[in-house]
Design brief:
Blueprint: H1 5-17, H2 20-26, H3 31-45, E1 50-52, E2 57-59, H4 61-92, E3 94-99, H5 101-106, H6 108-118, E4 123-128, H7 131-139, E5 145-148, E6 157-171, E7 182-183, H8 185-188, E8 193-196, H9 201-211, E9 221-223, H10 226-234, E10 239-243, H11 244-247, E11 257-261, E12 266-274, H12 281-300, E13 305-306
Parallel strand pairs: 3-4, 3-5, 7-11, 8-9, 8-10
Antiparallel strand pairs: 1-2, 5-12, 6-10, 6-11, 6-12, 6-13
Helix pairs in contact: 1-2, 1-3, 1-4, 2-3, 6-12
Pfam families: HTH_1, LysR_substrate
Organism: Paenacidovorax monticola
GO cellular component, one term: cytosol
């Protein structure tokens, strides 16, 4: 049985007006089209719904009972549509972003504040995790986009470069006397270096920089969280090697001293999206805000945060 909600609405309208001409006008259709739709409905039901004469139209007893049932069906259908619309509106205000913890601190607060001003109570979820986890969440459709780094040749993902940040050295206490404002990679090898684990871009970039010099990068300690790095540096266990955006949460700690690694690598940050699919209006707005905040950071800290490279991905 192939009966559409519109057919039922035509039937109900005609059952109330009992006039084909008025009903056709009400339904914005021609009278022949209405007549055909009613005949098709009667054939589908195997039941005569109206008695027609040259002077009048009236419901059959079976048609009257079908009208009562049709009102219930149409009512339930309309209620379901309203629930679906309400759910769609809530869904349109859902945003999930995967990003490095340093970006969750340095970029996303301004982005979230801007979205709060532009949208009515957006529901934002932030997955602050290592680069590989960010990419996996995006591939698993657990995030609308990621602030991370991805290989240019990835078949399912596209990346728009945002900025690059320099690597710096963070020292405290006795180690402040061992470092200068400007240090070189070779000079770091004599220091007790603390950095993030192999899952981080910080470790990946530094390892690559030393590998180009034929040196294996072997820091004294590796941890998962920047807060742990801060605690270790504060207790003078060693000195931290991190990208600039990674140290911004702890720069305000008393006794911290930051030094530039003049020949260190530049870490690239990008907006990573799935090649297939259409981002929601909220996700598109969020990405626009990320770009705006990145430009502000580059203008505010030009010595540490640089424009993206010319390479397109």
């Amino acid at each position: 049985m192939n009966i559409s909600p519109r057919q039922l609405r035509m039937f109900l309208a005609l059952s109330e007006s009992l006039n084909f001409s008025k009903t056709a006008e009400q339904m914005l259709m021609t009278q022949p089209s209405l007549s055909k739709a009613i005949r098709d409905l009667e054939e589908a039901l195997g039941l005569s719904l109206f008695e027609r004469t040259t002077r009048s139209v009236r419901l059959t007893p079976g048609g009257a009972r079908m009208a009562t049932l049709a009102r219930s069906i149409v009512g339930e259908f309309d209620t379901g549509l309203r629930r679906m619309q309400s759910s769609a509106e809530r869904e349109a205000l859902q945003l999930s972003v995967a990003c490095w913890p340093s970006l969750a601190y340095g970029v996303l607060p301004e982005v979230c504040a801007a979205l709060e001003r532009r949208f009515d109570a957006p529901q934002i979820t932030v997955h602050d995790c290592a680069n590989s986890a960010c990419i996996q969440r995006l591939l698993n459709h657990q995030a609308d986009f990621a602030l991370a780094s991805v290989a240019p040749s990835h078949p399912d993902l596209a990346s728009q470069d945002l900025l690059r940040d320099r690597f710096v050295l963070l020292a405290s206490g006795k180690w402040r006397k061992q470092v200068r404002p400007r240090m070189r990679l070779d000079e770091l090898l004599a220091l007790p270096l603390i950095t993030l684990t192999d899952a981080s871009t910080a470790m990946r970039y530094m390892s690559a920089a030393y590998l180009q010099r034929g040196i294996e990068y072997r820091p004294k300690m590796q941890v998962d969280q920047v807060a742990t790095v801060a605690g270790l540096v504060k207790k003078e266990v060693g000195v931290a090697v991190l990208p600039y955006l990674g140290v911004t949460p702890i720069l305000g700690m008393r006794g911290m001293q930051m030094s530039e690694i003049v020949d260190g690598p530049l870490r690239s940050v990008g907006i990573v999206t799935r090649r297939m699919g259409n981002p929601s209006a909220l996700a598109r707005a969020a990405m626009q805000e990320v770009i705006a905040v990145s430009r502000i950071l580059m203008g505010k800290y030009p010595e540490w945060i640089l424009p993206p490279s010319a390479r397109k991905r």
